Amino acid sequence: MSNPIKLRSSQWFSGREELAFQNRSALRSMGLNPDDFLGKPVIGIANSFSELNNCNGNLRDVAEAIKRGVLMEGGLPLEFPTISLGEEFMKPSAMLYRNLMAMDVEETLRANPIDGVVLVCNCDKTTPAQLMAAASADLPAIQINGGPRAIGRWRGTSVGSGTDLWKYSDELRAGRLSLDEWHEIEAAYGCGVGACNTMGTASTMTSLSEALGMMLPGTASIPATDSRRLQAATATGRRIVQLVREDLRPSQIMTADAFDNAIRTLLALGGSTNAIVHLIAMAGRRGIKIPLSRFDELSRTTPFLVNLMPSGRHLMDAFDTAGGVPAVLAEIRSLLHLQSVTVTGRTLGENIARARSFDRDVIAHQDQPLLAGGALAILTGNLAPLGAVIKVAAASPKLMQHVGRAVVFRNYEEMLARIDSPDLPVDPSSVLVLQNAGPKGVPGFPEWGSIPVPKKLLQEGITDLVRISDSRMSGTAFGTVVLHIAPEAAAGGLLGLVEEGDLIELNVASRRLQLQVDEATLSRRKQAWQSPATRHLRGYPKLYIDHVLQADEGCDFDFLRPDSIAAVDFVEPLVGRS
Hints:
The chain has helices at 10-13, 17-28, 34-37, 59-72, 98-111, 126-137, 163-173, 179-189, 201-212, 227-246, 250-253, 256-269, 274-285, 292-299, 316-322, 324-331, 348-351, 412-418, 455-458, 519-528, 539-547; strands spanning 42-47, 76-81, 116-121, 141-145, 152-154, 157-159, 376-379, 387-391, 401-409, 431-434, 466-469, 481-486, 503-507, 512-515. The radius of gyration is 24 Å and the shape is globular. The chain starts with 9 loop residues before the first helix and ends in a 31-residue tail after the last helix. The chain has a domain at 377-528: IlvD/EDD C-terminal domain-like (Glucose Oxidase, domain 1), CATH 3.50.30. The protein has an 8-stranded mixed β-sheet with strand order 7-8-12-11-10-9-13-14. By secondary structure, the protein is of the alpha/beta class. It contains 21 helices and 14 strands.
């Protein structure tokens, strides 16, 4: 380069001689000569591989391919492990630890001689956690995922991970599926490493990373076992070295316009409601405030185009073959900020100039959408003064305007104990209400909002009814489910005052969620209300309860979300004696 940039890592290796001696010696002890690293960009590889996370099981191979690309481009790759957030094993929710993982990655970048970073993700929360860290650290960064898993088949039928779990578990509870058949489906369901092969949260978030400009075009949907996955990793390794030399940073990519592009993509995908919380948190790290109303505003004019489970019928292999994220972006190009810069160094418009859909049954034409607009809707009203979310694309049209009497569960344990009781006072017009399942209430904001249809209704052939909570639901789930009610019950929200038999109105067209109880009665209930006691008196859960923001603000920690642009700046460490 004619004007090479000053590498951040040179503070460690070419600074004060007694300190540089120590740091160079450390790399020598790892088998590296000074010629292997002096003057070369040091590339951190933030690997979220873990044997406790089946979705990320192939990330060791992905990391090796990244290293190959970094070396080919003249950089020094140094891999480091991070917390790995797996949806299956982590309880009560991987969401409890998203902010911790973001802190883990950010502080590792801050404290070490790293010039640029490759963020290696896959399972739901790993993607936003890494992007939150990258937004805060603002070192050159690029992301790559491990890809969706293969498609399992049961008795000739494809099994969609996540979505078919909910469908077949209802069949088992209703007595229409035997235990032997259930175990057969289990074997097909666990068909290999990789993220869910539906448009659940994992594939939604990696697709949005690509739409945001933080991932190479066309890479989000490549299957985990496809050789193109490792080819993409090598290309990503090469590109991060170039990003360091070009000094292209997340602050130039993760702009307000880019987040609008990501929201539009979410809506066209019919993607996970969880993405709303994550996008708000990611933008907040750059001092960009996205009100919930922005999602609703863009939803009204963005066509829903992608026919994938849980909102449609296909799986991720079909999405990739049909053209993946670039094809979706090409369909909605007239709605996008095409001048947004991406990790390619080119604009979004340049990246998608030749993209198109190769299968209109999977990625529909913008003039023939699955839904003209409104895949997601933001509700307000006295039950949700700060907002609530419903995924219209996966709900029952007949329930979009509904008034019913509440069946109330004070917490998740009570719901599990009562939901299949033959004495449950429920009918198809009822509204199931789950309280104290929000960010502070559990803590961790788990995916408990998709309350099961009561067994007595399943046996009558009822497959959906209105359900509301301050919780989340899996991106693979479906039904008429209102989520993320803010403020949550445990924070004093009106949701915590709902009692059995109260009338609740849902009107999606009017964007209203209303508790039909008079003010005098609510005032008496409020005076008697007490904040639920918590068992978490120490450690990280206590920190979470004390500092987590509500759902409408992304559930980041208050002390990690800057209150001004000046506060966004990444504070470099003082490089001295350890």
